[in-house]
Design brief:
Elements: H1 3-12, H2 33-45, E1 47-52, H3 58-73, E2 77-81, H4 83-95, E3 101-102, E4 114-118, E5 132-136, H5 146-156, E6 161-166, H6 174-184, H7 189-196, E7 197-199, E8 213-215, H8 220-228, E9 231-234, E10 252-259, H9 276-285, H10 287-298, E11 304-307, H11 311-320, E12 324-326, H12 333-344, E13 350-353, H13 355-358, E14 369-373, H14 378-385, E15 397-404, H15 408-442
Parallel strand pairs: 1-6, 1-9, 2-4, 2-5, 3-4, 5-6, 10-15, 11-13, 11-14, 12-13, 14-15
Antiparallel strand pairs: 7-8
């Protein structure tokens, strides 16, 4: 086999997003230089993901992207977003001089170029009518059950131009990267696993990635080079070579409060609990004490959010904190949206809710304080805090973490996850920067070459 034939053979083994986009035809005066750079790259890709941290202007970037696609195709563009975000997108569009229309039933006035709705209403829309589609807070895809996620992925296949926008994912959450790649029309999730990963347990199903899955030998740099072919990640402008002037976050004050646990029957001292059943019992047994402390702490601030895990916590906090309103899962969509609006407008002083309901996408820079009951989820905690501690926040942000002495292992576990996520993000950025440099050297149309054994 000749060298040319071997190279052709290896290239034929690659799985990459093609660059079939177009040059921008519209720019917005509100965009910063790093935002313009990401928008232009994404448009030239045609199908891409932008992982940009909270407050870096993902809404503006996706709106400008959508306006470009609308002008290119002369078809509307659909923006899918969580319920809490779809109305906010229309407000943001108006602020930036872009027209957007929110539809809940699949209908919109003739001539509208950008339509926004929430994910759960996708079934009302015929995607063949659209020239492009945007998934806002696209990390939510991995949280949907298989049926809904498959429906979204299938629907996106009908649309030529595709954009995925979310805050920087946890770099070791390969599930999120796999579902994003598949929705963009690149390598399927299962193909990603078989190409780059192997399991220590031959009986482990690929759906359980993250438990015993790890990179194949020497596969990690090739994996990140592949990711860099369809995604860009940024936590601050300097990650892309731009100035961080004006993009420095205020101080984050994280204070951990620990309530003394009571010993179990037959014990002299309260010991750390082990296992989810015991942890759940400890949380239920201390609801009153934890809620009373949260109520006392939040009332030292002019406004705030009290994040909960159990309905009983939310009900009690709404009862004992003057001016508190409970935004709960049982609320109708219209009621939820009204509470989101009222809190952002300052009409609700204290909001009680769960991270899975309100910790994605909303901009609450008017608020600079929250309480958070200890749990294991670093991602939920990160998203909850980032509703306030984000670019555009003018005050230092205070987070009151509340746990018990018997749940000390829970808080310590989340802290270790945070440290690991930061470390892996820096490693991911190094791989992606290297991959981006290689693509500049070999041309935008180049493909990363994987070893033949992968």
């Amino acid at each position: 086999m000749s060298v040319q034939e071997y190279r052709a053979f290896v290239e034929d083994k690659t799985h990459l997003a093609g660059e079939f986009g177009f040059d921008p035809n519209y720019s917005n005066p509100y965009c910063f230089d790093f935002q313009n750079s990401l928008i232009e790259w994404s448009l030239r890709q045609g199908r891409s993901a932008t992982f940009a941290d909270c407050g870096l202007g993902k809404t503006l970037m996706q709106l400008v992207w959508a306006e470009n696609v609308h002008r290119k195709t002369n078809k509307p563009v659909l923006i899918l977003a969580p319920l809490s975000v779809s109305s906010q997108t229309v407000d943001e569009a108006d602020k930036f001089g872009i027209e957007a229309f929110r539809s809940a039933d699949g209908r919109w006035p003739h001539g509208k170029g950008i339509i926004t709705t929430n994910y759960e209403r996708l079934h009302h829309f015929d995607l063949s009518a659209f020239g492009g589609i945007v998934c806002d807070e696209s990390s939510i895809l991995k949280n949907f059950d298989g049926k809904i996620r498959a429906a979204i992925t299938k629907a996106m296949r009908k649309v030529e131009y595709r954009g995925m926008y979310t805050a920087t994912p946890s770099p070791n959450d390969y599930t999120e990267l796999g579902t994003t790649s598949e929705a963009l029309g690149d390598m399927a999730y299962m193909d990603m696993l078989s190409t780059f990963f192997k399991s220590n347990d031959d009986t482990l199903h690929p759906a359980h990635i993250g438990q015993n899955w790890r990179f194949k030998g020497h596969a990690e740099p090739h994996f990140w080079r592949w990711v860099a072919s369809w995604a860009r990640a940024i936590r601050k402008p300097s990650d892309l070579g731009f100035s961080d002037d004006g993009w420095v976050l205020p101080e984050l004050i994280e204070t951990h409060h620990q309530i003394k646990s009571k010993p179990l029957d037959g014990e002299l001292f309260a010991m750390p609990v082990r296992g989810l059943p015991m942890e759940r019992e400890e949380k239920k047994a201390t609801i009153k004490e934890r809620c009373e402390l949260a109520a006392e702490l939040i009332q030292n601030h002019d406004t705030g959010v009290m994040w909960c895990q159990f309905n009983a916590e939310a009900d009690l906090l709404a009862e004992i904190v003057p001016g508190a309103v409970n935004l709960q899962g049982a609320d109708k969509d219209d009621a939820k949206e009204e509470k989101f609006r009222a809190f952002k407008a300052g009409e609700i002083k204290y909001l009680v809710t769960k991270p899975k309901i309100a910790a994605l996408g909303v901009n609450w820079q008017h608020c600079a304080a929250c309480t958070y009951f200890d749990d294991y989820s670093y991602e939920q905690y990160y998203q909850a805090v980032r509703r306030f501690w984000r670019f555009g926040q003018k005050r230092s942000v205070t987070v009151h973490q509340i746990g018990t002495t018997s749940l000390s292992n829970v808080a310590n576990s989340r802290k270790r996850k945070a440290e690991a996520a930061d470390k892996m993000f820096h490693e991911m950025m190094e791989h992606m920067v290297s991959a981006q440099k290689a693509r500049k050297i070999f041309g935008n149309g180049s493909k990363p070459v994987f070893p033949a054994w992968m």
